[in-house]
Design brief:
The protein has 488 residues and is an alpha/beta fold. Helix content is 33%, strand content 21%. The structure holds 6-O-phosphono-beta-D-glucopyranose (BG6).
Length: 488
């Protein structure tokens, strides 16, 4: 098979799990946006692979019914959408049956750049890669995108990595963490490394603590079947929260080349202080939502969600205190928190700077620590909490916030994470994807915590849907004389 000189104009994006939730809600809308903004060549085909024995027309009909709801209304144009549907192809494959790959092989036989997006259960990754290789579809330029969860622990993650590596080399493997594709997350790198004023302060002892919160107001909904075997630690902390922490804490990379950035993130993960059983007991909180209210509507408890066993101990909330044992961050606590059915959707990073050693305004002055509040979603903003003089006689202080609304700061379109990352795959840019050793280092830190929780054999703490999590989460901060940002 000839592979030389392929470029992104001769492109097949092959999506395994093409009729699944992720494809309908994220991947196809992202590809549609790329289509509308002329980022896909006229020749680009999108080949969905699914179990259903559908014709191409039936698949297009299915996509037409389910995907438009996930596309920004203003971008949805009927002529564009019809033109986009023309790019779609469908192949019915039971991925566990070698013979079924024949149809895919005939459709993909031309020499083209192939991107295989595996949006299936991870236990199928190995077989899919083996079969693709066996039918000659894996050439030197082919790329494979692995959707999370990549394993359920270090052992299974290593197994997946090993199996995929039998057919694709590391430069061809794109382990996706969609948080790395978010505009605000990428902006963190520019904030840190593009502004000279922060670097001298971005360390102990000038930073007192860091909070990273990814709160969701939604429950587990139709994903309960998957979620109950994962829980918030595997679903969110092991990947999204640790990746955010890496970007906040990493040393400046020597360049933006993929390996230079990933080397620095790996060092952060390797510096995480392992947790003993005593640490786990003291520094982690697991919660599970009970009935409550969300957006003014009564909502059911986790244990009442369809497909959740009545005695499930799966955590829908995690808060923990972590330490990075290196010269920059020694003794600075990093508080990570995530949960479903929390009071509101809110992802933010709070950098709390150390207080002044001495205040000329005296002890009674109402001083507050300087904080940098980086809101990732739904607002996209950076605010700096400062003290100014309260107008009037005397020298009283009052807190104010200097604010930058990132959405208003430019007229340029802000692409969604999946669109940005898919375009990175097509262009062969690996910087915003996890390398094998990074993924394994993250599991290496998380595994003992999961293990510890099962040894402690206690239930997650209940918290009402619509709250900020169990009271123990506030107590975790209070021990260090701190509060979560929304409590301050
Ligand atoms: C996914 C998790 O990776 O991220 C989901 O599996 C979670 O449980 C989602 O809801 C959150 O993503 P976002 O972009 O909506 O914050």
């Amino acid at each position: 098979m000839q592979t030389a000189n392929l470029d992104t104009t001769d492109l097949d994006v092959v999506i395994f799990g093409g009729a699944g939730d992720l494809s309908l809600r994220k991947l196809l809308p992202a590809l549609y946006m790329a289509h509308v903004h002329d980022k896909l060549s006229a020749e680009t085909r999108i080949i969905a692979v699914g179990r259903q024995t559908w014709s191409r027309e039936e698949y297009c009909q299915f996509v037409n019914t389910h995907s438009p709801a996930f596309i920004d209304e203003q971008a949805l144009d009927s002529a564009d959408w019809q033109a986009f549907l023309k790019r779609l192809h469908y192949v019915s494959v039971d991925v566990t049956r070698s013979a079924d790959y024949q149809a895919l092989q005939s459709l993909c036989k031309q020499a083209r750049l192939r991107v295989f997006y595996l949006a299936t259960a991870p236990n199928l990754f190995s077989q899919i890669c083996t079969e693709l290789h066996a039918c000659g579809l894996v050439d030197a330029q082919a790329r494979v995108v692995l959707e999370k969860p990549l394993g359920t622990d270090l052992h299974t993650a290593r197994h997946i990595n090993l199996e995929v590596a039998r057919h694709f080399n590391e430069q061809q493997i794109y382990r996706i963490d969609h948080y790395l594709g978010k505009e605000t997350v990428q902006n963190l790198m520019v904030l840190r490394f593009g502004n000279a004023i922060f670097e001298p302060l971005w360390r102990a002892p000038y930073i007192k603590s860091v909070q990273i919160t990814v709160a969701e107001s939604v429950g587990v909904g139709s994903r309960a079947g998957f979620y109950d075997s994962a829980g918030a630690m595997r679903d969110m902390v092991q990947n999204h929260l640790l990746q955010l922490m890496c970007i906040v804490a990493m040393e400046p990379p020597i360049s933006l080349d993929a390996d230079d950035v990933r080397d620095e993130k790996l060092k952060v993960l390797r510096s995480l202080k392992p947790m003993s059983l005593a640490d786990i007991k003291r520094d982690t909180v697991r919660g599970q939502y009970t009935a409550g209210a969300s957006g003014g509507q009564a909502v059911a408890a986790y244990l009442e969600e369809a497909q959740v066993p009545a005695d499930s101990r799966t955590e829908t909330f995690v808060a923990l205190r972590a330490y990075i044992n290196n010269a920059r961050w020694a003794q600075v606590p990093f508080f990570l928190r995530t949960g479903k059915r929390m009071q509101q959707r809110q992802s933010e990073i709070i950098i709390e700077f150390a207080e002044q050693a001495f205040s000329v305004f005296g002890d009674s002055a109402a001083s507050q620590p300087n904080r940098m509040i980086i809101s990732l979603q739904p607002q996209e903003s950076i605010q700096l909490g400062m003290m100014v003089k309260e107008p009037g006689s005397g020298m009283r202080m009052q807190p104010v916030r200097l604010g930058l609304d990132l959405q208003q700061s430019s007229d340029k379109r802000r692409a969604e994470a999946y669109e940005r990352l898919l375009m990175d795959v097509i262009k062969g840019r690996l910087t915003h994807f996890m390398r094998r050793d990074e993924l394994e280092a993250a599991w290496k830190w998380v595994d003992p915590i999961l293990q510890g929780w099962s040894e402690l054999d206690d239930k997650p703490k209940p918290y009402p849907a619509g709250s900020w999590g169990p009271a123990a989460s506030s107590a975790l901060m209070a021990r260090d004389g701190l509060t979560w940002f929304e409590e301050s």
